[in-house]
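Can you give me the bound-state structure? Components:
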Amino acid sequence: MTPTSPARQIKLKSPREIGFMREAGRLVAQALDKVRTLAVPGATTAEMDEAVATIFREHNAVSLFRNYPNAHRGKPAFPAVICASVNEAVVHGIPNRRVLNEGDIVSIDTGCRLNGWCGDAAVTLPIGQVSAEATKLLEVTKETLNIAVQAMSHCRLWSQVAALMEQYVHDNGMAVVEKFVGHGIGQAMHEEPQVPNFVSKALIKHDIVLEPGLVLAIEPMVSLGTKNVDVLNDFWTVVTKDRRYSAHFEHTVAMTVDGPKILTALED
Ligand code: MG
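Here's the bound-state model for the whole set.
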């Protein structure tokens, strides 16, 4: 989501509600696991979209992405159940029939509502053999998400977690995209608070206390070159300004009395 004002109305979830969110999250994980098997040279992102739509339909889950309103007034709603963002695309790419080639990377983001509760996750997948630079981008972005989840077990405030994420990306000579951030999630996909992957004065002023019941969609977006982005003239696809590769990993994570729990993991 795009950062806006820091107004706060955080809805903490009970253990029972987190249990429902785990079921939605597990289905999202299963959908992404299916996509992983389709991510080969010659495949298309339209095929991936159809596979995820089928899984959601079979489980009576509702896509959180299809028909999501466009931030640009009067422009088309999102037409698919996955976002598929190839190479320089960061997020919000629209699936299509273009064939994926060896060396491409594709970020797949999807979410569903199951029995009234939401799950949201993303992975970036290599298509066949990719460059050493692209491999490192995927590793660094995935590890940035890991670092965040691990840090939630001992940090009291989100700004402490975001500082570790940002530091790790910079130590690897890459950039954190700042135009888009993670978010609270529950019965709606986008709830308060906003969850930036970097530290800002606004975050310090309106910090997030990591307490049991807090459920966040954490989603670092990392680029090889600039952090700055453009939106293509489809009014959805976000690309890096320098058109270098960008990656995106996301999990829905609940704070519990036993520490952070990934709700969009395939296995417990
Ligand atoms: Mg999200």
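A couple of observations. The domain at 15-262 is CATH 3.90.230.10 (Creatine Amidinohydrolase). The first helix runs from residue 15 to 38.
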